[in-house]
Design a protein that fits this description.
The protein is α+β, with helices and mostly antiparallel strands. It has five helices and five strands. It is 46% helix and 20% strand.
Length: 142
């Protein structure tokens, strides 16, 4: 199965942060995970709160572990809060079911990882993630 390469990870990180600056967002933190939920790369902008890694990771981790982007996770949490509470129990509280956790797919549609962005509104976080994913030539699902 294909994975997100280190080169593409670096592109995602650089372009997501650049997009945040272009949109004049608050300082962002961006994490890229492979399809197994392992960290491929992380960057936290100057001025971003130190605890943002856990939030970015939780957004991406939920996406890749459930095969469900942050927007879909949030809808599921609203419709079936007991399900998302159980999922969070299974994953030790690591899932943050909100936009900003973006699934990454290869050209064949296979999930090859996820990107988590935090620092601004969830929708703006997702837009920054998508900018990085698109710049890397991959497809994102918000």
């Amino acid at each position: 199965m294909a994975e997100i390469t280190l080169s593409k990870t670096r592109t995602i990180l650089r372009k997501a942060l650049a997009s945040g600056r272009e949109m004049e967002l608050k300082p962002l933190s961006v994490v890229v995970l492979d399809s197994g939920g392992h960290v491929k790369g992380f960057e936290r902008e100057d001025g971003a709160a130190p605890g943002r890694f856990a939030i970015a990771h939780g957004k991406a981790f939920g996406a890749v572990m459930l095969g469900m982007a942050g927007t879909a996770q949030m809808a599921r949490a609203e419709q079936q809060p007991y399900f998302m509470a159980a999922v969070n129990g299974v994953y030790g509280g690591q899932v943050i079911p909100v936009p900003g956790g973006v699934l990454v797919r290869d050209k064949r549609g296979n999930v090859i990882g996820a990107v988590g962005v935090t620092g601004d509104t969830s929708d703006n976080d997702a837009a920054a993630a998508m900018a990085g994913i698109t710049a890397a030539g991959l497809t994102g699902e918000v």
